[in-house]
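Protocol step 4 of 5: obtain the predicted structure for the target chain.
Materials: sequence only (see below). No template structures provided, no constraints applied. The aim of this step is simply to have a reference model before the mutagenesis design in step 5. Sequence pasted as it appears in the construct record:
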Amino acid sequence: MKSEDPMTERIIELRDIKKSYGQVYALGGVNLRVDRGEVVGLIGDNGAGKSTLIKILSGVVRPTSGEILVRDRPVSGWSAARSREAGIETVFQDRALAVQQTIVRNIFMGRELTGFMGWLKVNKEIEEASRLMREIGFTSKVFTPHSIVGQLSGGERQGVAIARAIYKQAELIILDEPTTALSLTETAKVFHFVRQVRASGRSILFIGHNIHHVFDIADRFVVLDRGKVALTADRGEVKSAEELINFMEDVAHPGGLPGLHETGETGQRVR
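Step 4 output (structure tokens):
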């Protein structure tokens, strides 16, 4: 287990987060952290608790118990507004894009730049949209802020959603299944956008069912199983995607033992 760098800025940390609905526990004591400038891959089978965890991080759902720390400071009254204030933005599977509108309109939708008497600062928006597109890696001159989103490929649309999150001052961008139903070429585009975001010093929580995709892009892996962290591992500790898959298969069997690292309920490694 690697020692943590004391100089690394911790964007958010969850400690012993539990969420129950009546007698049913969706999360049973999750510990999770995301540091600045890293891509954390969150994986788990259906029903593992990934969706509930995303909703808690985005402030849509409040945990039943546990502690949330933003940059090492405890936060009370966690909500969607507090999550945004902490610099957390979520790009859900549907991306919530208006496909008949342009890239610039999608980026600024609901947060338009206005001036005197509420007039839109159109030229300023176009200038800012161009900057955001360059920052995340839209290098082709084919794309401009006036391009219609509906004419973009799946990977390119994911880039527009990421650009919108960056405009909203995101320090941590949660990507929910960003490569679902994408071809290899389009997946490569998404990976390019993610690497650009990481290079800018921002962080990504990459949620995926495709273990190979998560393995290819993440710096650290967190495996959820039935509401608990079954594994936390750095990239250097996992040799291949198959090793992660085998671990998840072992955990899924009631009588099975973890194949990669044996862990306690908190996900800490037990040697």
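Step 4 remarks: Residues 257-271 have pLDDT under 50 and may be disordered. The chain is about 30% helix and 25% strand.
Proceed to step 5.
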